[in-house]
Design goal:
68% of the residues lie in helices and 3% in strands. It is built from seven helices and two strands. It starts with 5 loop residues before the first helix and ends with a strand.
Length: 203
Amino acid sequence: MPVITLYEKWRIWLSRALLIPLAILFIFSKVGWEETSIVSTILFLVGCILVGIGTLGRLWCTLYIAGYKDNTLVTEGPYSLCRHPLYFFSFVAGAGVGCATETLLVPLVVIIAFSLYYPAVIRSEESRMLQIHGDEARRYMKSTPAFIPRFSNFKEPEQYLANPRIFRKNLFDALWFIWIVGLLELVEGLHEAGILPTFCTLY
């Protein structure tokens, strides 16, 4: 029986451990680009675009793995582009949320944290995938990149059977990225209204 490693078990908790201090820092900070509104506008626009792409991509992935995760080796749709499209789109959405703060520091921290931790998660998952699916997984790993999508690989079926209950649950998980952008705007409004104090400046 394949064992889920500590990297995988602690993935969500470590993500939250990074998010909470970043959120607290942002809540009590002001953005240093406010006087140069074009910079803030561009960062926010880029952030919204990335969050949109990441959220739709996560929903696309969830449609394919809902109810299948370890039982079936999914190799179509987003999983024909790369072996870990869910992590790729999470990375895109996370970087988008960082940009939506209208700072450069937050997306940089997100990118560095992801780059340091998720390669180990990917290696652990692929080790388990090899144990479960054997030669089929080896062929898939040989023909499909791990993280960066290869669009020339794309293939999708005419029909696909998904589990609506699991898809519905993951639907709300994906929407968190959009809700966070809304919360960022709320924090900015509270700063402008003088309700939230400011202790430092972020760029």
